[in-house]
Hints:
binds S-adenosyl-L-homocysteine, disordered C terminus
Amino acid sequence: MAKTDIKSMNEAEISSLLAEMGQPKFRAGQLFKWLQSGVGSFDEMTNIPKNLREKLNESCYIADVKIERKLVSQIDGTVKYLYKLYDGEYIESVLMKYEHGYTVCISTQVGCRMGCSFCASGLCGLKRNLTASEMLSQIMVAAKDNNIRVSNVVMMGMGEPLDNFSNSIRFLELVSNEKGLGIGLRHISLSTSGVVSGIERLKEYNLPITLSISLHAPNDEIRSSMMKVNKRWNIDALLEACKEYQKVTTRRISFEYALIEGVNDSERCADELAKRLKGIMCHVNLIPANPVKENTFKKPDKTRILKFRQLLEDRGVNATVRRTLGADIEASCGQLRNRAKEGDINANIQ
Length: 350
Ligand code: SAH
Ligand code: SF4
């Protein structure tokens, strides 16, 4: 029989599991706290009786991720992790230092089935979903490895979080729990390529997270050429879902826009984008597209990027250019995993 993923359980579920084992209620809180503190084995749970620890060990496992490779940027200290999972799969996380603290960018799936043309994560399709416990572990391991407290999380690594909906929701519940990592939902961003059905479901939870939409184009022609998801839900459908989402949550929405030279960086594009975003309380994050070995996209030069930003600002759209971190360590998610599969990682390994 497959063992239970106990680290993905909330306290209520642990409580019923223990009740089935004839254990007193108060043990659920103790066990939950241990699991959410990142312990690697039941044996470390010193206030849990030995016979219960043994029983739990027979029926449950404590999920973990193992550091397989670690790349430290010589420019800004950004750390990129290649983690190995229990089944030999690889995922990536990035730890970034900002003025307000440490942010971890986590993966939500092994691979991705959305197949965006500019992205390294989607090249080989979806392998499997990550469990909530594997999402948590990425943060716990990075925090422990650097002896720091992580204050912000972005679900912007490999994978489409809304294509792994229930595990992503469970992750949000656990990561913000005061008995665990206690990272407030206001300090968490969830990025989606535009899975409208997922945005509609997420709206029902009315969470104070930041919803980040990978828009990348001002019209359907360009967007469909870059992102398959746009053929299922076009820009009108996506922006309509954003408006409905905002009505419920009253949260500002963040739009990601990766600037690719000659594709979506013209003045006309900026103009069209500004018109489209009218009526949505939002912020546009301009990202100079990160060249990926597997495609030929180029980022525009700096003047062009700043001009694009100015054009948006002039049209009343709040926009910033995202600071590029870890430029020397291929910090865009998906790139390192692909190298690992090719047996070709040798840069800056520590
Ligand atoms: N699947 C989700 C979250 C993970 S991707 C999504 O697509 O939103 C995180 C962000 O990185 C997205 O905005 C994505 O569009 C962007 N991205 C992917 N590859 C990139 C590249 N080569 N250059 C710049 N941004 C990229
Ligand atoms: Fe998947 Fe996001 Fe990459 Fe698209 S950009 S392939 S949705 S991870």
